[in-house]
Amino acid sequence: MVLQGRLQWSLAAGMVVFSLAAVAASFIGGDDSAVTTTTSTSTSTTVPASTTTTSAPPSDYTVMPGESLFSIAQKFNLDMQEIIDLNDLADPDKLNAGDMLKLPSATGFVAVIPNTTAKP
Q: What is each CA distance from 96 to 73, 77, 102, in whole angstroms?
């Protein structure tokens, strides 16, 4: 490994200085064999994840210039056929800017995990 730049040299120098300081501190620290402190803390918590069913009414969406049914379905990660069925579209290729579409809502099971962070 060849150190080529100032950054690499300064990082290497910092590493050497830190290592030497750690070694010196371990020797200067003194004899800790006379004082022994043992602290043991064990906490175990088991919280089962609960599930929640969520549903919402269909949302309205205004078609923007240049958008197609395919691009709208991709944008919202929806199935095109669901949008066609919900809006009773006879010809899905004839969308105009400004048209209002109803988009199906996302439904399903969502795992809800409570906060398990212990207070200090």
A: 15, 21, 14
